[in-house]
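In response to reviewer comment 3 from the previous cycle, which asked for concrete evidence that the modeling workflow produces usable outputs, we include below a single protein chain processed end to end. The sequence was submitted unchanged, and the resulting structure tokens are shown without manual editing.
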Amino acid sequence: MRKINLFAIASASLMLLACTDYEGQITDVYKEDVEPGLDQWEQESNDYIASLQGGVNSLPSGGNSGSHDASGCGDLWCGATDTEGRIDASMLPFMEETGGYWYDYNDKLEGGDSKFVWPSDVKEDEYGNFFGPMAEVYGGIKGTASVVTGTSVDFPYVGIGFDLVNSKQDPADITDWNGICLQYSSTTSFVVELGLQDEMFVEYNDYKVNVAKATSKSVAELPWAKFKQDTGWGNKVALSDVLSQVANIRLKFQTPGDFHIYSIGRYGTCK
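The workflow returned the following structure tokens.
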């Protein structure tokens, strides 16, 4: 499991339980370089990654520590200035010490083979923090989503996210954000989901919005009115009842592709 940072080490088991509550698990992080002695699953999965056009290099690399463009960043997180892999605590007064750290998750616990492949030149720091060093090198979160079909998982996925309050996923009211904005590039579409502490409230049918693929750096403005539940399953609830108790924000990939997340903010703050 990828540790988040020094403060989160003591609550690692709580974080794992919290993340598996909704649908996945915090992943072990795989790198581009492959070491000898891979088992069959790892080798097959890496072969799959190699078949993706361009792999993690098909988007502009941006891999140059200290020279990133922070213009137009949203007010919650700016990869160009981040060194902790964490949402700006000054913007979220309700956030506690274990809140706000980026993590990743996948479909492994459900029998899937999906995973992320991260750039091989990014390493954990001495505190076990991975996404902070990545932001320093790439000005954001950059990788390849290897979403593998043909397993026991009907709808395979990988995702990244952050908890708003703490690793126990206590809820927060984000109604007054009016929505979310992103600075990003991606060779595949993905969704932004509003995760809850009690997923049975919606029976795992979370409010979400689709983000279109964009092969150059782009801005997505996502007002709450665009967030919808899927039809035909789950428990239908009012959006207002969800916005008053959001535990985490998740970016979920359900098709393979390369991506780079530069910034995230409240609606209207990305330029």
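The CA atoms of residues 72 and 271 lie 4 Å apart. We consider this sufficient to address the reviewer's concern, and the full set will be provided in the supplementary archive.
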